[in-house]
């Protein structure tokens, strides 16, 4: 995804969600891929395993604290599953706006390792984004945050089923 995202008309729902998501103060936008099509339930379970490993790393196993994050499935479809994009090479993925401690880029390898260890179906960014860090975007300005929030919410025109609400946290 390039920084030159075409601005489209947003629904009232997308605008309200976007305004609310600003409260999480995300400092990174991460794209998690899968090697093959997975069900909505499998995507939730896999993302949950990954999120738990991150929480344990940053706050300890018994901590009740959570990282501020908003994960959104790309191309969610009804029927508890979601399919690939227009071409197979683009793959299936989850976008996650997250607030990481300190410098977000310092945690890229940890995020990659916890993701690929969460489930054999997880795609490795080194394979699916070869010679590129496009899977991990650091957010440094409000304008970039707005662009990436709007991009993540493109699937939420009518409802919020593509948001993995079970894992949404503003960092409390």
TrEMBL record:
<protein>
    <recommendedName>
        <fullName>Inovirus Gp2 family protein</fullName>
    </recommendedName>
</protein>
């Amino acid at each position: 995804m390039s920084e030159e995202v075409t601005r489209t008309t947003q629904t009232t729902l997308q605008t309200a969600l976007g305004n609310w998501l600003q409260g999480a103060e995300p400092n990174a936008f991460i794209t998690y891929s899968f090697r093959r099509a997975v069900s909505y339930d499998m995507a939730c379970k896999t993302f949950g395993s990954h999120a738990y490993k991150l929480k344990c790393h940053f706050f300890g196993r018994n901590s009740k604290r959570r990282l501020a994050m908003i994960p959104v499935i790309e191309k969610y479809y009804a029927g508890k599953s979601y399919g690939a994009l227009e071409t197979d090479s683009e793959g299936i993925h989850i976008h996650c706006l997250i607030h990481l401690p300190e410098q977000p880029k310092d945690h890229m390898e940890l995020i990659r390792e916890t993701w690929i260890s969460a489930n054999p179906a997880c795609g490795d960014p080194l394979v699916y984004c070869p010679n590129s860090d496009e899977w991990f975007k650091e957010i440094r300005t409000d304008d970039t945050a707005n662009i990436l929030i709007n991009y993540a919410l493109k699937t939420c025109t009518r409802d919020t089923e593509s948001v993995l609400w079970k894992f949404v946290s503003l960092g409390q």
